[in-house]
Amino acid sequence: MTSLLAPPITTPSQLTAALRGRGHAVLTSGGACELIPAALAELTALAPSWTDLPPDAYLKDGGRYRRRRHACFVVDGSRVTITPHRAHWQPLEYNALHGGLERWFEPITAAVLAQPVWSRMLVALSEQCSAVKGAQPWYVEAHQFRIDTTDGIGRPTPEGAHRDGVDFVAVVLVSRSGVKGGETRVFEAAGPNGLRFTMVEPWTTLLLDDSRVIHESTPIQPLEAGGHRDTLVLTFRAGGFQGPGAV
Is the distance from CB of 189 to CB of 163 less than 8 angstroms? Predict the structure, then answer.
């Protein structure tokens, strides 16, 4: 079996400096629990909801490998407000495959959002965004993703290496089962440097300064029936959500 490159790990106490410096950082599950703060069991209790994600009906490559749910929030200090359900929208500049399209995904369930750890996680990550770019409300989009290998291959990022058009991105590995591939790659947006690694441990968390780095995950292939990779992707944007006509 090919050995997997482990991610470079940052401790919670070093997180702000890492985001200000190189523009990216990876927390272990223990580091994520310390940052939130949370018991690992609280995060693990969220994981079963990934088995109930509807198919993504907007894949322009014709694939059937992605399932997802979506929700939006405004996080202002310790206050988390869920917004009325809205479409996910990105400009073509940031998503050449699906940009310019209002994509209406089924909402993340009330049972997930009611878990106390959910709001604590959004607040903790928003505090990190404010530590780097100043205290302010953060407009947060949450995406539950399951990439499966039903058709032999699944693409976590069918648009390729990209930025999301936000200020910060968090990619949280929830589960990885019966697959190979799924390597994470992070590149400088305006330089030659990059790194690659594979997140394996559930609740490993990658944080990115979206203005400074480009990221992607390579396709997955099955090692056994039912192979899949589950992630939670959170984006944080100052000033408002992306949408047609947004600044």
Answer: yes
Q: Which long-range contacts (CB under 8 A, 24 or more apart) does 58-62 make?
A: 58/98, 58/101, 58/103, 59/158, 60/97, 60/98, 60/158, 61/97, 61/155, 61/158
State the Cα–Cα distance between residues 195 and 186, nearest whole angstrom: 6
| Count of other CB atoms within 10 angstroms of residue 121 | 26
Contact 231, 170 (CB under 8 A): no
pTM over 0.70? The answer is: yes
Domains belonging to the chain, first-starting first, are: 12-124+144-237 (2.60.120.620)
Backbone angles phi, psi at 131, to 5 degrees: -65, -30
**pLDDT reported for residue 239:** 96
- Regions in the chain scoring below 50 on pLDDT: 1, 247
Residues whose CB is less than 8 angstroms from the CB of residue 67 and which lie 6 or more positions away in sequence, other chains included: 53, 54, 55, 56, 145, 146, 148
- Do 163 and 216 form a contact (C-beta atoms < 8 A)? no
